[in-house]
Structures are given as structure tokens and as C-alpha cells.
Amino acid sequence: MNRNYEPSLPTHSHRQHNSLDTRLSPAFARSTDRPAVPKSNDDSDFDIFALVQIIRKRKAWIFACTAAMLAIALLVCIFMPRKYKAESKLEILKQDAGGLSIGDANGASGSSDALDFNVNLQTQLSVLKSDTLAEQVIKELNLADSKEFSPDSPLKSAIARYVPGTSHQLTPEEHAAAVLKKFKSNLAVDSLSGTRLITVAYTHSDPEVAAKVVNQLLSDYVEYNFQVRYKATTKATDWLGRQLVDLKSQAEHAQDRAVQLEKESGIFGEDEHHNVVVTRLEQLGNEVTAAETNRVVKENIYRLATSGNPDLVAGMLGATGEQPVSGASNSVPLLNSLRQREADLNAEYADAASKYGPEYPRVIQLKDRLNSLHASIQAELDKVVGRAKSEYALAASHEASARKSFAAQKKAAAQMNDKATDFLIAKHEAEASRVLYEHLLGKLKEAGVLAGLHSSELHIVDPASVPVRPARPNVPLYLAFGALAGMTLGTVCVFVAEAMDRTIRNPEEIEASTYVPVLGVVPDARLAPGIGRKNRLKPQAKTALPSITHTRRDEALTLQDSATAEAFRAIRTALLLSGDKVLMITSGSAQEGKSFTSLNLAIALAQNGSKVLLADADLRRGTLSRVLNQHTGAGLSQVLLGGADRNIHRPIQQVPGLTFMPAGAPPSCPSELLGSQKMSALVESWRQQFDFVLIDTPPVLPVTDAAVLAPGMDAVIVVVRFGVTIQQSVVRTIRILRDVRANLLGVLVNAVDLRSPDYFHYSGSYGYEGYHASDPGEIQLLVPESMKANPKGETT
Fold it and tell me: For residue range 270-298, what is the model confidence (pLDDT) as tens digits?
């Protein structure tokens, strides 16, 4: 075959413009120059409806994963060894602040706050989980020799038995460590939130052993706690006994020193304030105060007496409540008497002088007597002044003597103060030593009592009883977890499969990526509603038509009432509206159903009363020719090579109005023949003879036959298979057809699963699912053996 041959691509003069695309949407208007650029989606909103659709579309994954996980969970429940769980509760009692406690010696409070209790609780949990208690329980119950605690697994034992040189004898240390690890893995210790309770649980294949382990562990723990407290109390008692001997000696020495200092300081009272020196100092202080007061009084009397005013002297002496001056009791009445007589003489003298005159003897005599009285008063005043002076001097001397004695006593008190300080220090030390000795002596007696008491901080609320039901496996929990895990895994698989699936599952994806409208969707004929399950793909005869749009008229319910047949009728309507007569039907790859589509579209058009020619242009395989049993004799290849008449097409008797042009024998250069002038002339003659011409061609991507034939067609229909054709294949096919200036009518989605949500939301439902035949044997899909060989796509 000449590979360099470039066939001519004639344009048909009668090509009609497709008006259907324009009527459908301006966005799908035909433009052979428009690149197949995918449509961008700027909508970034979360689409819950799309997620639900994905889950509905691939729910089989969820069902399969859920069933698998449930089966695994059921097998686990069946084959898992039964484990019994024994549980007990331990209460930590609150310590009484008034109880006996060695900790009181340090001034600590017996009641603990929340933080202290939390620390204590965590400590108790750690002790219960300690290796010491675990090893003690293992030893007491002899668990190390039991089969349950064997460190060798069955797999290791089998390998060691049948594979020489693989056995390994554990050392005693390794064996003990393995048993301890196994024991602690089955032990569960935890605290109940908001309470003072601790739960201790142990899991074992033997329920009695599980209960014994829990009870023995709690018993050992209570005994361990008692032993710890007993040892601590014993150590405290021994230490206190040694300390009390030294403390007693120190207290006695301090007491003796205090007594000696008391004697030396002269303190003979209840405290340091009761002593002779201090008492004497207080008395001398009082004497100094009294002497000073007396001296001030005597000094004032002396100063008033020196003034010479008898009235002031008499008044001052008479005003004192006590007798301040010796002899003053005689001077005051005498001085007052003299002053009274003076007053009388002055009155008598004044009266006589006024009557008789100053020269009168009586007046002179009165005057002499008055002068004599004045002299007596003055002499008496002089006596008072002398006495006041002497008494003032005596008071001053007495004050000085008292001050001197006070100063001497004050000096003695100052000397005694140092000794009193030493005495006070020694006294306080002796008192402190005595109090500490008595306190520790009391604690020592309490410790002796505590050493014989069992710890009351722990109380076993519920001893462990022998469990009657196994804790593992928990069948409802395992099954629920298996179902949940299966649904989760299935959901993950759904989205993973959806993310990795690049096949066509939504017609809108085709329109968005190629800008070519979707003419319609064809349901999978094998799942067509109304078809009995036993009769799907059932062959009738080799001469029968592989169609779903044509059946015998005497059948009670024919396949032409199915959703698949109705889909082809809808596509027929679109073809009638488009006005195109010569239609080429192709696909991107093989097994996508283009031959099936060509035949059923031809039948649908013929049933509408049109004169239809169905040409098999697949010169390489001739699929339709073999299906219709027309593969023998001359065909299209012979016509193009000039070895046969162009009118060798044959009518199909079962479908009135349908004529078939077989492919003929496979030529050596099919693409050159299809792109030749003879093919163009042949198509032009068919246009004149028939209302519609449907040409079935090979796929576009593997060979160039469809590409060279497409420019001469009125319109091209591209068939894609639901769930099989990938998006890149569709985009590449459309690009190739646009490059050769093909007139694209649209894309037809074939073999859509009726159960898919994409089909329902794209085409709706009209109740075909409700049809039921009275006799399933009457409903037969007319597919010959040759087409049954490949039910998913085109026959081979």
C-alpha cells in the first residue's frame, strides 16, 4: 500500500449547514476553527450534591468494603480466643486531720487539697502497675509455668520444630522478662474521674485465674502499703529514741544554767521584772519625785515671803492643804490677828483724826500704837522669811541626796541588766528544749501505737468475682467497628476511584471539554428495563437483527418499549431537525458501540417512513456485514476498486425502507479508497437516492479512514462508551475531526448504566422500570451469536 498517497478531500456541493447546534445553544455553534480547550470551572464552592452523586454512583465500593470488613470482623469473633475480664474497685480514703500521724511533727496538715490528692492518686496507680507487685503476684500464683504465659508463640514453636537450628532457649532472665511483659499487657489500672476509686482489671482465658490475679494483686498492694508505712514508722521511732536522749540532756543543762543565772542576777520572782534592784530603783525614783516637789513648794514660799507683802504671805501659807513650814501654824493666826488689829487701828485713827485733828493726844496715841503694830507685823514677816529660807535650803539638800541615791541605784540596775539578759536567753532555751522534748516524747508514744495498726487509707470496695461472659471478643462492638471501618474504607475507595477515573461518566464533561453538544444518551441494552434477566443477549437466529428498536409485532411487550429504544427515537428526532442527510458515525477507539448505534439509528429512521441506506465503510473488519450476514459477495470495496456496480446495496427484508451496503472484501488500501473521488461520487449518488445515508466507519484514533472520509459528510456523530472511553480520547478524536474540517453534529453517549445517577438526572425516567411481561420467554433481544461474543462493545 502506498503510504505517501494523499487522497483528495472533496467538498460536497449539497452540504447543508447544521441548524440544530445553533438552535440548541450558541455556545455549541459549529466552528471548525475553535480549539478543543477544556472549559474552566471557577466555582470553588463546596458541592454536597456532587459528593452525594459520587457516592450513589459508586456505592458498590461501599457495599463491598462493608461486607468484607463485616466478614473479617465475624471471622475474628469466631476464631479469636475467648478472654475473660475480672475487675475490682479500690477506694483511697481521705486521711483524718485529727488522727495519729507522724507527719504532724513537721506541722503538715492532715487534710490534702485537690493537687495533693491528684499526686497521691497518680502515685497509687504507678505502684499498682509496678514490676515489684507484678512479679510477686506471678510468683504467688505460679503463673510463669502456665501455658498462657509461655513466651513462645505457636508460630515460633512450629518453626523451631520443623526448621533445624532455629530454636532458641531463653535464659531465666529473658523468660521472666517475657512473662512480666505478658502479665502487664493484660493488666488495666485506671482511676474513675471525679471519685476516689481505682479500677483494677485483668484479662485471661481462664475466668478463675483472672479473678485470682485481681484479688491477689489488691491484697499484695494493701500489704505492701502497710509494710511501707510500718517500716517508715519503725525508722521514725528509732530515730526519735536516739534524738530524745540527746535532747533530754540538752534540756537539763539549759535548765541548770538558767537557775544559776537567776541567782547571779538577783531575780527572785516569777519573771525578770520581780527583783530587789528594780524594786529599790522604783522606790528611789518616787523619793526623788517627792523631794523635787517639796523643794519647788519651799522655793515658791521663800520667794513670796521675800516680797514683804503680808497679804500674799498669809494667803500663800493659808492656801496650802498641808503644813509646809514648821511653825507656820502659829505665824498665820498671829499675822492675821496683827493685820486685823492694824485694820481696826487705821479705822479708829482715821475717825479720830477727822474729828480732833492730828495734834489731838488721842490721835497721836493711836498713831504711836499703829506704828508699833506695823513694827510687829514686819518682825513677824521677817521671822516667816527666815523660816522659809531655812526650809527651802533643807528641801534642796534633801532633793540632792535623793537624786544621788537614785543615780547610784540606776547604775546598779544597769549592771544587773546584762545578767538578766543572759538569764532570759537561758530561760527561753530551757523552755524550748523542754517543750520539744515533751512533743517528741508524745510522738514517740504515738509511733509505738501506729506501728501496731494496719493502714486504713485503702479499702477494697468490690472484690473481683469470676466472670461468666467473655470480654473479648465483643461481638456487637467488633461487628459495629467492622461496619464502620468498611463504610469508611468504602467511602475512601469511592473518592479514590472517582479521582483516578478518567472515563466518561457525565455528558456534561464532554460538552465542557470539547464544546460539542451531546445528542443523547443510550442506556445499556443489556440492562434495559422490561427485559427478563434470563433473556438478555439471547440469540434468536443468525439472520436476526442485533437491534432493540425492531422486534416482531406479535410480541406482548416488545423491546421497542424499552428506555434504550426510546433513546434512539430521541436521537432520530434530533437528526430530523438537523436537516443533514449523509451522516458518518464513528468513535475514538474500538469497542465503543458505533456499529450498534449505526444499525439502530438506521432502523429508527426507517421506522419513521424514511428511505435509509446503512453503509458499512469499515473496510478493514466489516462489523455490520458480519452481523447482518452480508459479508459474502461484492461490497463497497469492490465498488470503489471498479469491480462492481455501485447499486449492489441490498434491502433488509425485516425492516421496510432500510437498505444495506456491505463492506466487501478487505482491500489493501482502505483509507485511500475512502478518500478517493469515487467515494465522493458514490456518496453524491446515495444522496440522490435515499432520504438518509448512515455510514459506519472505523475508529478515528487507530486508523485514518474516518478522518479522510469525514470532510465529505454532511455531519459526523462521535460515539463514546459510558465508563469506558476516557476524556483524553474524546478530546483527541474531536481535535482530529476539526483539523480535517469535519462538520461535527454531536456526541452520542452509549451503554449508559440505567442505575447510574448520571443517566437519571440527564434523561429522567418515565416508568419503563415498571413494565413486566406476562411471559418472559416472549421478550428476546435479537442479537446473533457473532454479536454476543463481545457484549460490551462492537463485535469483532
Answer: 555 556 667 777 887 888 888 888 888 88
- Closest residue by Cα to residue 86 from 649, 466, 571: 466
Rg (CA), the chain: 67
Cell numbers for 749: 453517549
**pLDDT tens digits, one per residue of 471-495:** 888 888 989 999 999 999 999 998 8
Alpha helices in 357-452 (DSSP H): 361-450
> For residue 604, with 0-12 CB atoms within 10 Å meaning exposed, 13-18 middle and 19 or more buried, which class applies?
buried
C-beta of residue 373 within 8 angstroms of C-beta of residue 366: no
629 or 769, greater pLDDT: 629
DSSP H or E stretch at residue 749: strand 744-752
Strand, coil or helix: 203: strand
Residue 557 grid cell: 411487550
Q: What share of the chain is helix, strand, coil (3-state, %, to 5)?
A: 55, 10, 35
Cell reading at 484: 464502620
Residue 721 per-residue DSSP state: E
The string of pLDDT tens digits covering residues 284-343 is: 788 888 888 888 888 777 777 777 666 666 665 555 544 444 444 456 677 777 777 777
Bridge partners for 614 per DSSP: 660, 694
Given a cut of 60, is residue 456 above it in pLDDT? no
Give the SS3 label for residue 582. Answer: strand
* Collapsed DSSP state (helix, strand, coil) of residue 784: coil
Amino acid at 572: R
Neighbours of 206 (CB within 10 A): 15
Most confident of 286-295, 604-613, 623-632: 604-613
Cβ 779 vs Cβ 536: under 8 Å: no
Query: 755 and 527 in contact (C-beta within 8 Å)?
Result: yes
3-state secondary structure of 443: helix
Sign of CA dihedral 354, 357, 363, 367: positive
Residue 529, classed as helix, strand or coil, is coil
User: What does each C-alpha distance from 95 to 112, 114, 115, 118, 561 come to in angstroms?
Assistant: 8, 13, 15, 14, 89
pLDDT in tens, 6-34: 333 333 333 333 333 333 333 333 433 44
Written as one letter, the residue type at 36 is A
CA atoms of 717 and 697, how far apart (whole Å): 11
Per the listing, cell 495533693 goes with 116
Asked whether 611 and 690 are in contact (CB, 8 A), the reply is yes
Enumerate the β-bridge partners of residue 582. 693
Side-by-side strand order, sheet with 612-616: 518-523, 744-752, 715-721, 582-587, 692-696, 612-616, 658-661, 650-651
Distance (Å, rounded) from C-alpha 374 to C-alpha 346?
Answer: 11
User: Is the backbone of residue 591 left (phi > 0), alpha (psi -120 to 50) or beta?
Assistant: left
Of the candidates 332, 344, 348, 447, the one whose C-alpha atom is nearest the C-alpha of residue 387 is 332
Classify burial at 93, counting beta carbons within 10 Å of its beta carbon; exposed 0-12, middle 13-18, buried 19 or more: exposed
